[in-house]
Amino acid sequence: MAAASLKEIIRVEGHEIAVTNPEKVLWPGQGITKMDFLLQLAKLAPYLLTYCRNRYLTTIRFPDGIRGKSFYQKNCPEPSPEFVRTAVLNGINYVNLDSLSALMWLGNLASIEFHPSFHYIGDPLPSEWIIDIDPSLEVEPRIMQAALLVGEVLDSLRIRSIPKTSGATGIQIFVPIRRGYTFEQLRAIGEFIGNFLSHKHPGLFTIERLKKNRKDLIYIDYLQHWPGKTLSAPYTPRAREHAPVSTPLEWNELSMNLRFQDFNLFTIEDRLRSKGDLIQQIPPQSLDSILDFIMKKKNT
């Protein structure tokens, strides 16, 4: 009987997936087992897959739970079942996370975090624009204020956006965009905004790349949004205490003294039921006006 408990078979989309060590605890502080994780991951799937499907996926695996050793997985784990699709980029055979069954298979491998590319498979153009707001301090009470200031700048440019928790310590500003912009153009806008805010609020923001030189300033990371780089997907779990989930927020929520850990594996379902996917409620944005302004500024 003891040996039998080391594996369970679940059936997903017509496929049998062996769940090894289903009672292994992944989040010791919350007592969340691998099977608990898979059940919650399945509920997140309709939303998480939206931002991982047809992209080059990097996962972070924690075979012994979040307090154990971890490693980044870019190449698809082998052996892989026939229902797991892959795509090659620069010699790396990435998972194309496009199904619940593939998600459950990765979850069984203790893939806790999901970090997709910023562009679709076979497409050189960015699929959205994301500005990463990264605190230099582990505990940063000003992070919500900082995100609001970035949002105000975007709003002044008539660019609608949605903030989302990284699930760790930062905030990421997600902007759906019209197709056709390049990564270089998005980087130019990000640099413009980063320079503007770091000059207007020198005691709060920086665009200094080296963390050791940032002191306590909040880093506006416009460089992260680039081919070959990744950020945490909307709705990915994170390997932190309280099992946080990277969660889109309404702008007014940033003024409500929120705690990142309040958005977690066990609260996200009710939130999605009541609010839906906030990102999908914003139409693709035009960036033409700010690009024209930046180009004219360069030419003067």
Main features:
DNA primase, PRIM domain; 3-stranded antiparallel beta sheet; 5-stranded mixed beta sheet; alpha+beta; ligase; NHEJ_LigD; EC 6.5.1.1; DNA ligase (ATP) activity; Non-homologous end-joining DNA ligase
What does the secondary structure layout of this molecule look like, with pairings?
Blueprint: E1 7-12, E2 15-20, E3 25-27, E4 32-33, H1 34-48, E5 55-61, E6 71-73, E7 85-89, E8 92-96, H2 100-108, E9 111-120, E10 129-134, H3 143-156, E11 162-165, E12 171-175, H4 183-200, E13 205-206, E14 218-221, H5 268-275, H6 288-298
Describe the structure.
The strands form 5 sheets. The protein has a 5-stranded mixed β-sheet with strand order 11-12-10-14-13, with helices on one face. It has a 3-stranded antiparallel β-sheet with strand order 6-5-9, with helices on one face. The mean pLDDT is 95. It has helices at residues 34-48, 100-108, 143-156, 183-200, 268-275, 288-298; strands at residues 7-12, 15-20, 25-27, 32-33, 55-61, 71-73, 85-89, 92-96, 111-120, 129-134, 162-165, 171-175, 205-206, 218-221. The chain has 6 helices and 14 strands. It has 2 domains: 8-120, DNA primase, PRIM domain, CATH 3.90.920; 129-298, Alpha-Beta Complex (DNA primase, PRIM domain). A hairpin with a 5-residue loop joins strand 11 and strand 12. With 300 residues, the protein is an alpha+beta fold. Helix 1 (34-48) packs antiparallel against helix 2. The longest helix is centred in the middle third of the chain and has 18 residues, at 183-200. The relative contact order is 0.15.
